[in-house]
Amino acid sequence: MARQNPIISGLYAITEARLMPEPVFLAQAEAALRGGARILQYRDKGDVVAEAPRRRRQAGALRELCAQYNALFVVNDDPLLAQAVGAPALHVGAEDAPLAALRVQLGRAILIGVSCYGSVRQAQEAAAQGADYVAFGSFFASPSKPQAPVISMAVLTAARAVMDLPIVAIGGITEASGGALLAAGADALAVISGIFGANDVEGAARRFTALFGDRKE
């Protein structure tokens, strides 16, 4: 079955403030893009009011950087910020604002991804409401979300059998475990610490990118 939105594939890098202090923030993000990241998500849990100028500055800079590398820029969990910087994609949790309301706010052109954790049912509901991709995880213990429950790779296989949206796997993914997630049905691997926690960000991104080989959508 042909999958919708094939742009959601490959290495999906996610920023992390604790690993990317502002003096090297953009340099590390660009290193991930040079290494082959096809999607870059701005994830920042800072105060949305007190730190609004920094968040908008960083998000705007990342949007321009992604345009230079022909990569998709995604804003995590902040529709207003996505709107302010003209982000082409937004990622939200399944419990967040209904997709219908987000579409009214942001328009039809923006891509919207939804975290469905370990629930195929939630993924099907998100698809029915117009999500452009779904994400499952955490598949392994994750330093970015240490309290997240670990789920089975069988979720990917079950989801792949009943839906044609792109599927993103997230949570503690390493170069050693990524291949199994792709084999189970993931289209993209969302990685934080495995890239931005590495001494050589570009090299780590290249190794993850190599897991995809010459796969065609």
UniProtKB/TrEMBL annotation:
Stretches assigned to the Thiamine phosphate synthase/TenI domain: 11-195
Pathway linked to the protein: Cofactor biosynthesis; thiamine diphosphate biosynthesis; thiamine phosphate from 4-amino-2-methyl-5-diphosphomethylpyrimidine and 4-methyl-5-(2-phosphoethyl)-thiazole: step 1/1
Binding site for 4-amino-2-methyl-5-(diphosphooxymethyl)pyrimidine: 41-45, 76, 115, 145
Cofactor binding note: Binds 1 Mg(2+) ion per subunit.
Binding site for 2-[(2R,5Z)-2-carboxy-4-methylthiazol-5(2H)-ylidene]ethyl phosphate: 142-144, 172, 192-193
GO molecular function, one term: thiamine-phosphate diphosphorylase activity
EC number, UniProt record: 2.5.1.3
Pfam families, per the entry: TMP-TENI
Name of the protein this chain belongs to: Thiamine-phosphate synthase
Species the sequence originates in: Acidithiobacillus ferrivorans
